[in-house]
Design brief:
alpha/beta, transferase, SAM-dependent methyltransferase, globular, 48% helix, 7-stranded mixed sheet, methyltransferase
Length: 252
Amino acid sequence: MDPRTRSLLAHADHPVAAPLGDDSVERLLRHALPATGGRVLDLGCGQGTWLLRALELVPGLVAEGVDVSEEALERARAAAEAAGTAHRLTLRRGAADTEAAALADAGDGPGYDTVLCVAASHAFGGLLPVLDACRRVLAPGGTVLVGDAYWEREPSAAARELLGAYEDLAGTVERITGQGWAPVHAHLSTRHELDDYEWCWTGSLTRWALDHPAHPDSPEALRAAAAHREGWLREYRDSFGFACFVLRRTAE
């Protein structure tokens, strides 16, 4: 099964591709977006969930999104058409890191008032490269909203192997501030948000496989859901955390 197709199926019941509830998404956006107007860019926008909510919250806001999945972008376009905000939304297909570099090199205008990158640091090779890419396209005085994993408790060796070399929360914040960023707001995903995300991910994929038993990808989807569920419950559920930070530069 193509990984992008699998991701879309797994997020059918949780279009925010991160462990965050709707209320948390709205609070973070209200802290990150300008009160009226402005430009927002989402690097790794997926189905455009964050951008669609931003356009709904801020009159006159203009939004741009970048993602590698054409199917996800088509869903974002359709949702924007249905919401009546398609005229304020531009979507680009491409790798987030490559498109961010191209936008920075183009120097199109003064930059973006808000840059989002939530649960997409893998596209850049880590949190600090994400922040560097955001800095290059950010308008003076602008705001970055970034979301990434951290270790809530000391993980097992298997958990580190599954998910990667994250820091604890204090270490994560120290890395961010060490690069010239100041947190002005943050949200730590709750146990309910973390568990809801994982049950939705594995459940949506499992349900699709059971509803399409004759599909050639059905057995693989079942295996992927079971493997993900096993790794979550046995290896990283008790140590994994997710944080979203609203950041400003300490010096321009």
